[in-house]
């Protein structure tokens, strides 16, 4: 059911610029790995590379989700394998209703899997409303265009709703806590924890702040500077970073 993500010596270029310089990480089911590091160090590049964004060229290394070579899979195949990315900057698609978008995403995720029944549009909406309620998301948002006129907090909550709908085996959450007020961080953290508990999801949690890690206890914390993991530790490392910043590596 749940999956292990294995990243070995991952090197990535954008245009001609080397961004990731050999990242190695193993995330087991149910584990939370926090990724921290200064702006521009390659955290989002790692997230986009894992989901198969075509701008990011892997020049060396290997990424496996269980026994599957992720790097030869298309972005759709990766999503079907249970990989999920919550974007740092969620995109707006005016005119595409949230509830329709999520139904499409759900179908795409579970297409061809016999254990899933898609049911009627109405049944899916009921399911969606229940999840929205659990995550304290205003149900009115489900009828609006995707992220159209959403506040920063609403966008991030919607990413978590999407996560709940897609039941990922592995989730990459890129600054899901940035720009959120304290209550929203709590709600988002609760949603993430529920997902981990329900599906034993492995999580890469990219963040700048300690606060979300008070709610979601990371098993490991990694610091990325200039495309490399320069230090790994447990949650005590977060306190050290809060106090000292990243100067020691610059
Ligand atoms: P982080 O998420 O850690 O702040 P990013 O992974 O977004 O950092 O960026 C790492 C570096 O790669 C930065 O120097 C950034 O300017 C560059 N970069 C990221 N995406 C692109 C892109 N699409 N085109 C050109 N350069 C990019
Ligand atoms: Mg980023």
What does it look like?
- The protein is of the alpha/beta class and 250 residues long.
- The protein has one domain: Rossmann fold, CATH 3.40.50.
- A 6-stranded mixed sheet has the order 6-9-10-3-11-12, sandwiched between helices. Strands 2-1-4-5 form a 4-stranded antiparallel sheet.
- β9, α6 and β10 form a beta-alpha-beta unit.
- The longest helix is centred in the C-terminal third of the chain and has 18 residues.
- The model has no long low-confidence stretch (mean pLDDT 94).
- Bound molecules: adenosine-5'-diphosphate and magnesium ion.
- Adenosine-5'-diphosphate (ADP) binds next to α1.
Primary descriptors:
Rossmann fold, four-stranded antiparallel sheet, 36% helix, alpha/beta, 250 residues, six-stranded mixed sheet, binds magnesium ion, globular, binds adenosine-5'-diphosphate
Tally of individual domains: 1
Q: Any idea of the CATH topology?
A: Rossmann fold
Q: What is the number of helices?
A: 8
Query: Which small molecules are bound?
Result: adenosine-5'-diphosphate, magnesium ion
> CATH H-level name... which superfamily?
P-loop containing nucleotide triphosphate hydrolases
**Strand ordering within the main sheet:** 6-9-10-3-11-12
- Percent strand equals 25-35%
| General form | globular
Approximate helicity band: 25-40%
Q: Mean pLDDT score, rounded?
A: 94
- CATH architecture classification: 3-Layer(aba) Sandwich
Q: What is the string of helix and strand elements?
A: EEEHEEHEEHHEHEHEHEEH
The number of distinct β-strands equals 12
């Amino acid at each position: 059911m749940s999956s292990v993500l294995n990243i070995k010596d991952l090197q990535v270029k954008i245009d001609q610029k080397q961004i990731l310089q050999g990242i190695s990480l193993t995330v087991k089911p149910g584990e939370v790995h926090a990724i921290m590091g200064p702006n521009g160090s390659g955290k989002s590049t790692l997230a986009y590379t894992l989901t198969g964004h075509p701008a990011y060229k892997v020049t060396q290394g290997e990424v496996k989700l269980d026994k599957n070579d992720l790097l030869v899979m298309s972005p759709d195949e990766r999503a079907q394998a249970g990989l999920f990315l919550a974007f740092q900057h969620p995109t707006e698609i005016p005119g595409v209703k949230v509830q329709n978008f999520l139904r499409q995403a759900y179908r795409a995720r579970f297409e061809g899997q016999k254990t899933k029944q898609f049911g009627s549009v109405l049944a899916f909406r009921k399911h969606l409303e229940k999840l929205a309620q659990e995550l304290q998301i205003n149900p009115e948002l489900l009828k609006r265009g995707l992220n159209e006129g959403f506040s920063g907090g609403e966008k991030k909550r919607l990413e978590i709703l999407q996560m709940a709908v897609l039941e990922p085996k592995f989730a990459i959450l890129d600054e899901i806590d940035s720009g959120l007020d304290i209550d929203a961080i709590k709600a988002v953290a609760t949603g993430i924890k529920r997902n981990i508990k329900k599906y034993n999801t492995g999580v890469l949690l990219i963040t700048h702040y300690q606060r979300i890690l008070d709610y979601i206890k990371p098993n490991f914390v990694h610091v990325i500077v200039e495309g490399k993991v320069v230090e790994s530790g447990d949650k005590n490392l977060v306190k050290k970073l809060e106090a000292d910043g990243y100067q020691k590596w610059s």
